[in-house]
Amino acid sequence: MNDNCRVIEHPVIQHKLGYLRDSDTESAEFRNIMKELGRLLAYEATRDLDLREDRVHTPLMETAVRRIAKPPVVVSVMRAGNGMMDGILSALPFASAGHIGIYRDKFINNTVEYYFKIPKDSKSRQILLVDPLVATADTMISCIDRLKQYEVGEITIVTILISPEGLKRIHHFHPEVKVVTASVEEGLNDQGYLLPGIGDAGDRLYHTR
User: Fold this and answer.
1) Contact at 8 Å (CB) between 159 and 134?
2) pTM
3) Which of 101, 80, 92 is nearest to 41 (CA)?
4) Using CA atoms, how far apart are residues 185 and 197, in angstroms rounded to an integer?
5) How far apart (Å, rounded) are the C-alpha atoms in residues 172 and 136?
6) Among 140, 117, 121, which residue's Cα sits nearest to residue 129?
7) In which element (H, E) is residue 129 found?
């Protein structure tokens, strides 16, 4: 496994992932679990954030405390990334947020961007790039390319599932990008779906199957 990929095997995360895999899990429960996984994975993805020292007054005395020196920017890859966004922002209320709308068009065999908005002060800031599923990684690589045009800082992908093929391609084009995930899957089927996977995350989130 690449040193820049961290698989989080915490029992609580794996327990919740089991419910996402279950085809009997309804959309409302699926949304709640994905939100919870976003919050839990956010802690791991921000493990190395820099801290600064500050001074506060407790009810009894003045003391030193440590606070996040430079809050990250959470960027959701729409639409499925939005299912994790609220959970991550609940864990990181001091973070700002952006959105990228991008998809792979099978007719032109390329990615198409239809929306892009990140905070104006994103230069040099750590990015948490959020998408619950990374299969072929075509859209993820395009998102990283676009973010680098804005001279952002370190990029960490926060995903629930990623394929071995997708992980390899990401680190071929962007070897420094970190990945935090709950599982590296067995592979992809002929339609590009992750195996064993959770199906189409967007459809299951928003009941559009």
Assistant:
1) yes
2) 0.91
3) 92
4) 7
5) 13
6) 140
7) strand 127-130
Q: Quote the CA–CA distance of 135 and 67 in Å, as a whole number.
A: 36
Q: Tokens in use for 176?
A: 């420094």
* C-beta of residue 207 within 8 angstroms of C-beta of residue 149: no
Q: Determine the distance from the C-alpha atom of residue 110 to the mean position of all C-alpha atoms in its chain, rounded to a whole number.
A: 22
Domain 5-206 sits in CATH at 3.40.50.2020
Q: Report domain extents, the chain.
A: 5-206
Q: Is the pLDDT of residue 7 over 80?
A: yes
- Report whether 5 contacts 179 (CB < 8 A): yes
What pLDDT digit, counting tens, does each position of 151-164 carry? 999 999 999 999 99
Residue listed under structure tokens 């104006």: 120
Task: Tell me how many degrees the CA angle 62-68-72 measures, rounded to the nearest 5.
Answer: 160
Q: What phi and psi, each to the nearest 5 degrees, are found at residue 17?
A: -60, -35
- For 105, the token pair is 């068009």
User: Using CA atoms, how far apart are residues 77 and 160, in angstroms rounded to an integer?
Assistant: 13
What residues are paired with 69 via a beta bridge?
Answer: none
